[in-house]
Write a structure and sequence with these properties.
seven-stranded mixed beta sheet; two-stranded antiparallel sheet; binds zinc ion; alpha+beta
Length: about 210
């Protein structure tokens, strides 16, 4: 998706509402958790308003911020808005970001230490440039923090263009893509692999790697 095809606010709101219904149907949107955003044609960011159920979003639950995360209307964005603007600033090809509090991401980051290695999955082909299951990716895991300055500084040290996802321990994950449908696929695929890892841990008797 090039700049010419970036959405206006009304289109972005539709895409974000559709993503919310999808992620809710996949059990990735409990209560008011998560936050979603899109880069707009005018360089601003469309983002979900804080405290809304993502499976039941209305158009007025999506607000605009500038590229620095400053609200352009009298609504409160997610407390994690800075993590979105960081991704847009670092990666020009990122036009849609989804952040979810999924069960598998929380359980796995509680059970395991360090970053998460996913190896040998056919589904790894969801990631850019991967064409075979005969590979592995190391997904960064960051400790949870309420101070977004602290968290974003840690994130900046590890995230790369090659792997558009990261995990936050006890909390959830972030995924970004050139458009919202692809970001949704990325969430579904990552959650699928996290659930596989979780099932493997159960078979192994819950012993961490
Ligand atoms: Zn969160």
């Amino acid at each position: 998706m090039g700049v010419a095809t970036l959405p206006d606010l009304a289109q972005a709101a539709q895409d974000i509402m559709t993503a919310g219904r999808l992620l809710d149907a996949k059990n990735m949107a409990p209560a008011t958790s998560g936050n979603y955003s899109m880069r707009l044609r005018d360089g601003h960011i469309a983002m979900t308003v804080s405290g809304r159920h993502k499976g039941r979003l209305q158009a007025n639950d999506i607000m605009t911020l500038n590229a620095k995360g400053v609200p352009l209307e009298n609504k409160t964005p997610s407390a994690e808005a800075a993590l979105h603007t960081q991704i847009y600033a670092l990666f020009p090809e990122a036009n849609a970001i989804l952040h979810v509090h999924s069960v598998a991401s929380v359980v796995l980051t509680r059970a395991l230490r360090g970053d998460l290695v996913l190896a040998g999955y056919e589904m790894l082909k969801i990631f850019p440039g991967i064409t075979t299951h005969e590979t592995h990716v190391t997904i960064p895991v960051f400790d949870n923090a309420q101070d977004m300055t602290v968290l974003s500084a840690q994130v900046a040290q590890k995230i790369t263009k090659a792997l558009p996802v990261y995990l936050i321990r006890d909390h959830g994950f972030y995924a970004w893509a050139p458009d919202m449908p692809q970001a949704g696929y990325l969430c579904e695929a990552l959650e699928y692999m996290l659930q596989c890892e979780l099932e493997l841990l159960k078979i192994a008797g819950g012993t961490p790697k």
